[in-house]
Structure formats: structure tokens, C-alpha cells
Amino acid sequence: MSADWNTKYGTRRVRHDPPTLDEAIFAAVGITDDHEQQAEIAAALMGMPLDVVQAEVKKQARTNSRITATRVIAGEQGAQRSVVVERRVVRRFSAATRTGT
Pick from 16, 57, 75, 95: CA 20 to 30 A from residue 82's CA? Predict the structure, then answer.
């Protein structure tokens, strides 16, 4: 979608690209932790039906919950500190498929 308008220097055009569904969900995740509200925010950004967006939010929530978890730890003076735990997938190869020494 583009908008055109005339200026004294000629016609000017601005390109407007709406966000993709993944970008809209990513933005909604940054705003709130509630999956229903995330779906509503993403649907409003995209202009899509809520049912379609809810299904995608649930899919992404399932995969994201396995990857990263945030823990809050109280320090000695009671100040809260956040610790992000990321689990990486370890790929193991069998010795039979390796070549070399």
C-alpha cells in the first residue's frame, strides 16, 4: 500500500508495509504475558480475524516456553534480579557416521 501526495517539488510517495503475523505476535509478547491479550493485540495490528491469530499465538507460546525461562531471585538486600535460562539443543552424532581419525 502506498500513499501519494503532491508537493511543490513534485509527487511524493511513502510505502507502508503492515507487519507480518510473526512480527505482530512478537510485539504483543513484549507488551503482555497473557495469551488472549497477545492474540487481540496481534489481530488488531494485522487486521486479521481473532481465531486465526489465536491459533498462531498458541503455537508460538508452546515452542517459546521450552526455549527460555526467566527466574527472579531476591538478593541479600531484597533487590530482585532476573536470571534468564536458555536451554540449547545438543546435537550428538554417532561414532559410526563420523569420518576421519
Answer: 57
* pLDDT value, residue 36: 92
Return the amino acid letter for 95: A
pLDDT one-digit tens code per residue, 42-80? 999 888 899 999 999 998 888 765 555 555 666 666 666
Which residues 6+ apart lie within 8 Å of 21 measured at CB?
42, 46, 48, 53, 56
Going by C-beta distance under 8 Å and a sequence separation of 6 or more, which residues neighbour residue 29? 38, 60, 64
> What pTM was computed for the model?
0.51
